[in-house]
Amino acid sequence: MYIGFARFSIFLMFLFSWTSFTTTEAYDALDPNGNITIKWDIMSWTPDGYVAVVTIFNFQQYRHIQSPGWQLGWAWRKKEVIWSMVGGQATEQGDCSKFKGNIPHCCKRTPTVVDLLPGTPYNQQISNCCRGGVISSWAQDPATAISSFQISVGQSGTTNKTVRAPRNVTLKAPGPGYTCGPAKNVVPSKFISTDKRRKTQALMTWNITCTYSQFLARKTPTCCVSLSSFYNETIVPCPTCSCGCQNKSQAGTCVDQKIASVVPPSIGKNNLEPLLQCTQHMCPIRVHWHVKTNYKEYWRVKVAITNFNYNMNYTQWNLVAQHPNFDNLTQLFSFNYKPLNPYADINDTAMLWGIKFYNDMLSQAGPLGNVQSELLFRKNPSKFTFDKGWAFPRRIYFNGDNCVMPPPDSYPWLPNATPNLATSPFIVLLITFLSALILM
Ligand SMILES: *[C@@H]1O[C@H](CO)[C@@H](O)[C@H](O)[C@H]1NC(C)=O
Ligand SMILES: *[C@@H]1O[C@H](CO)[C@@H](O)[C@H](O)[C@H]1NC(C)=O
Ligand SMILES: *[C@@H]1O[C@H](CO)[C@@H](O)[C@H](O)[C@H]1NC(C)=O
Ligand SMILES: *[C@@H]1O[C@H](CO)[C@@H](O)[C@H](O)[C@H]1NC(C)=O
Ligand SMILES: *[C@@H]1O[C@H](CO)[C@@H](O)[C@H](O)[C@H]1NC(C)=O
Ligand SMILES: *[C@@H]1O[C@H](CO)[C@@H](O)[C@H](O)[C@H]1NC(C)=O
Ligand SMILES: *[C@@H]1O[C@H](CO)[C@@H](O)[C@H](O)[C@H]1NC(C)=O
Ligand SMILES: *[C@@H]1O[C@H](CO)[C@@H](O)[C@H](O)[C@H]1NC(C)=O
Ligand SMILES: *[C@@H]1O[C@H](CO)[C@@H](O)[C@H](O)[C@H]1NC(C)=O
């Protein structure tokens, strides 16, 4: 009955932490200010329009845009055309048949723009362009968390009174997930010259803010968590059907590893449609957290991330983990680390990502499709315990998406666990609270 009660209390704890962020949709508790801001700076007026530099800032701590890159779309308000572009291109020219002589780059009412690829000749580049639409997250590398292109617009207004901001801005990354607000007229941007001795400014600036919702991006989760420990041989797997269920009656929906010959040849570039190895969880990504060793003053965890998707090499992948002992992370092997403290006083969230040219790419499913690391934590005697699943993470995100955790009552337990109710402050509190309720 004691164990049942202790489990119930943990269940309550998790229930609270779980509900507190499944209900929040576009709001991300671990990155409350995260957004992508698109800045549209009008640099000069032309006889029939203007030249603007459009810059995409990824202010999200841990959500990046990986290959095949962003796509930015909008709807013009007047009869605008795009005469030319530098550092980007419209995906379709559209119908320019009424132009003679000079043909615009794009005549569509709703153009879609993509970045140019690396290796674009220098005379077609501007700064922060030409990375194939890949934008890193702010915490990982602020220098490449920006992407720009220059656009020369015609048949628009030619003064700040007659020009109209684009509307219905859509950002695909490259799939759905982002919702963009209207363009706002803001204080014109200032630019500092390379010798830092002169400031120039845009003639006019519009800001557009886009926010992410995992629910809009995909109806199903994309990763799950499995757990194990040195003190119990049980390996707690990802919950069955975490990301989808195997359809046994429909052969070929996933790749059965037992029949090696069906492993598909690589298509050689990332595809948004996953091709999964058959698993009971059907997630593209599994994160395994193993409580490995107990020392006198420290304890050690091994984290392994496995890719089950044959159609995706995850470049610049990242992991966000929440555990109360991250305030005393002492050593970390083969991953980069940065503490995230959205709420200044709680230091329990860590962002982990691969080391450049070593393991910053999580390869497609197969023998190379995994990365791993070990974390060494210093015990805080007043908090540390292997009891009640304390050593396991509270939340895990992979590439900014929340991973499905096993139910707390299935966690590996200490052998002969007889939770000492009297010494657990939480239980004492709960009992006090419950008895107060009963007495009332
Ligand atoms: C976008 O993110 C930046 C950086 O976190 C923040 O300063 C800004 O207020 C955010 N904008 C909106 C509209 O939330
Ligand atoms: C347009 O420019 C004028 C003069 O520079 C300025 O006073 C006015 O506020 C600007 N209007 C807008 C909408 O930016
Ligand atoms: C822009 O969005 C509005 C409201 O969402 C919609 O009514 C309108 O048709 C859209 N315009 C274009 C050109 O897509
Ligand atoms: C507009 O966006 C830029 C770049 O993200 C930012 O520095 C600026 O503060 C924003 N302005 C407003 C009013 O949000
Ligand atoms: C499995 O696939 C069959 C054939 O496409 C379909 O009729 C059935 O609804 C699917 N079952 C599930 C559980 O998705
Ligand atoms: C992933 O990278 C490997 C090695 O660079 C390459 O052989 C493979 O085709 C790539 N797969 C995808 C899906 O891009
Ligand atoms: C959070 O904990 C880490 C690891 O112990 C430490 O490096 C970092 O300085 C701490 N940050 C704050 C704001 O306390
Ligand atoms: C880290 O652990 C040591 C030893 O237990 C403790 O004195 C220190 O306060 C801890 N640091 C933090 C940030 O909790
Ligand atoms: C290991 O943990 C499981 C719960 O996941 C529990 O059922 C089992 O009794 C534990 N084994 C031992 C030896 O305590």
From TrEMBL:
What species is this protein from?
Arabis nemorensis
Return the protein name.
COBRA-like protein
Task: Name the family the entry cites.
Answer: Belongs to the COBRA family.
Q: Does the keyword Hydrolase apply?
A: no
Q: Name one GO cellular component term.
A: side of membrane
GO aspect biological process, one term:
cellulose microfibril organization
Membrane association type = Lipid-anchor; GPI-anchor
Residue stretches making up the COBRA C-terminal domain: 222-412
Q: Where in the cell is it found?
A: Cell membrane
Per UniProt, the keywords (alphabetical) are: Glycoprotein, GPI-anchor, Lipoprotein, Membrane, Signal, Transmembrane, Transmembrane helix
Q: Which residues form the signal peptide?
A: 1-26
Which parts pass through the membrane?
421-439
